[in-house]
Design brief:
The structure is a single chain. The two termini are about 20 Å apart. With about 230 residues, this protein is an alpha/beta fold. β6 (about 190-195) and β7 (about 200) form a beta hairpin. The relative contact order is 0.13. Helix content is about 40%, strand content about 15%.
Length: about 230
């Protein structure tokens, strides 16, 4: 949320937590404040959604920047989020990396450690949303950071539990019935069916639906009816 789509008020009644852009890939002070206020009013938990500092590509491409530059950007994004939440007297529930950074730290231990360090420098107590069996999950746990396993309700997976790339025609799941079947398999059997046609073990305590999914509202309403 807070990415300029202006659909937050429509989505908020059907979710329990949200990830809010904090200036890296999208967002502004005005959007950040507005979404935090809306979430607080709706009793929705808020989380910082830091990313590569890449508005041009919406944070969905890996940037070839130094670790120092990345660390500085992440720290600034998280500090901004902390400050705006404090002004609204809102509690920061979690941090979840965005886009290409999220995918990178799932498999890159070094970058995962950088992200964990940045989070711990800014927040004393907050949770980290992470993929199951990822490098970021291992590093965060080793550093004593509480993790929450996340799965994507509206994204397809590959056999190695990586997300199908955005350029692939089957990257997104936009049909609400297909999303429900996808989520049901994860909830009831801790399995996900990959685009290669296999079932792989996966665990999830929270599910992500993208605000820019063309059918986000219909999907959330269906999930809300099924699991509220």
């Amino acid at each position: 949320m807070g990415e300029g789509l202006n659909n937050e008020a429509l989505l908020m009644p059907y979710i329990t937590s949200c990830n809010i852009a904090c200036g890296g890939h999208a967002g502004s002070l005005e959007m950040l404040d507005a979404v935090i206020a809306l979430a607080k009013k709706q009793n929705v938990k808020i989380g910082a959604h830091p990313s590569f500092p890449d508005r041009e590509n919406f944070g969905r491409k890996i940037m070839k920047i130094s670790d120092g530059t990345l660390r500085e950007s992440l720290t600034k994004q998280l500090q901004l989020f902390r400050e705006r939440a404090a002004l609204s007297k809102a509690s920061v529930h979690h941090v979840k990396a965005h886009g290409a950074l999220y995918n990178l730290i799932a498999s890159d231990e070094e970058k995962a450690a950088l992200v964990v360090d940045a989070v711990q420098q800014v927040f004393e107590e907050t949770k980290l949303y992470v993929p199951f069996q990822s490098e970021i999950a291992k590093v965060a746990e080793a550093q004593g950071l509480e993790i929450v396993y996340e799965a994507f309700a509206d994204r397809n997976y590959r056999d190695d539990l990586s997300l199908v790339g955005r350029t692939h025609p089957k990257a997104m799941i936009t049909d609400a019935d297909l999303v429900l079947a996808h989520v049901k398999l994860i909830v009831e059997r801790s399995k996900v069916k990959t685009i290669e046609g296999h079932e792989r073990e996966i665990k999830a305590q929270t599910f992500c639906v993208h605000g820019d999914n063309e059918n986000a509202i219909q999907i959330l309403k269906a999930l809300h009816r099924a699991y509220d």
